[in-house]
Amino acid sequence: xxxxxxxxxxxxxxxxxxxxxxxxxxxxxxxxxxxxxxxxxxxxxxxxxxxxxxxxxxxxxxxxxxxxxxxxxxxxxxxxxxxxxxxxxxxxxxxxxxxxxxxxxxxxxxxxxxxxxxxxxxxxxxxxxxxxxxxxxxxxxxxxxxxxxxxxxxxxxxxxxxxxxxxxxxxxxxxxxxxxxxxxxxxxxxxxxxxxxxxxxxxxxxxxxxxxxxxxxxxxxxxxxxxxxxxxxxxxxxxxxxxxxxxxxxxxxxxxxxxxxxxxxxxxxxxxxxxxxxxxxxxxxxxxxxxxxxxxxxxxxxxxxxxxxxxxxxxxxxxxxxxxxxxxxxxxxxxxxxxxxxxxxxxxxxxxxxxxxxxxxxxxxxxxxxxxxxxxxxxxxxxxxxxxxxxxxxxxxxxxxxxxxxxxxxxxxxxxxxxx
Length: 420
Ligand code: GLC
Hints:
Layout: H1 3-14, E1 31-32, H2 33-43, H3 48-59, E2 71-72, H4 84-87, H5 104-114, H6 116-141, E3 148-149, H7 164-168, H8 182-185, H9 194-209, H10 214-220, E4 225-226, H11 228-247, H12 253-264, E5 270-271, E6 276-277, E7 280-281, H13 293-296, H14 306-317, H15 345-357, H16 361-378, E8 383-384, E9 391-392, H17 398-408, H18 413-416
Antiparallel strand pairs: 1-2, 3-4, 4-7, 5-6, 8-9
The site of alpha-D-glucopyranose (GLC) has 7 residues, from helix 2.
Family: Belongs to the glycosyl hydrolase 63 family.
Protein name: Mannosylglycerate hydrolase MGH1-like glycoside hydrolase domain-containing protein
GO biological process, one term: oligosaccharide metabolic process
């Protein structure tokens, strides 16, 4: 155990609000959906019951439709915008009205495999909720084939260039007055622009005005795009959910059908001109023509190919610290602006899982070592400049600490013995 291990555990404890974890104090003062799934994985390295608690509090806010919201506003904090009043979802506790990439089943599987006996009852209680969420994805958001998002925030890669063409079609000019809070916590130049924010809030207002009706939002909402990242996370999570279901003795043929349908839709998000998977505006059919980390999540779902390998190595070799969230050779690249270039440790962890499973342990180790270097230099920041490892965004970040404990820290030989 090293000093950094202790610090990482201390961050999880610091951000623990009792059953749920904040991504970081200040900037993100609530429970976030996919952040919580990674927090569970991190907790499982030293407190297995606490890991299950995290997944339980997340799924406890599931909507009757099966949707699991991207933010749960357990205790109102005026330091965050848009808060519960802006979303107006009428849930208790209040929640946002959109979702986030469904990585929870994948993380639940990792947590469960770390102690199957201790986790069996917890998993059995969680399973029907995960199943309902996956059904919601299949029935509500995969109607065009690949997984569709109705707000850039649903992708978890909020302002990546993938969404620029969809956002261009959103008229943010009539949004009411509001005050952002994020730019009071971190350097505004690292955050999305005012024009982006006007559009983000306009999409939220549409959802609120139609009572968060799924069908209206998908059919008529201001924004609808296929997201490669969410598609691959979902495809992978279907597989993990099926493994969990089988372990519990359930019939998982329906999950397998959802996965097969999703896999057969992948050609729709393959852009031959780009030589990669690509986001697509479902209102117009147009490709984004942007290479980003969403495409590389294909490896997590076992959907890589040699053309994608070429793109991966091109963008990775252009930087020094991990895989950049957007193409360093594209004009939209910005090495410190959130999802328009920076390296995100938790995303590197997902990509490395994919590399290992696809027989590329060498790539997984390179990615781990580069990520380890960033964290050793600066600690557990939200994200990093991939060119010089400069720390960016919020400090003491939950999922960065979690993936240190689970993946990024170098494991001495003594800890490797007996490891699978
Ligand atoms: C930002 C990120 C998103 C994350 C959230 C909380 O919105 O883009 O992926 O879940 O912050 O950390």
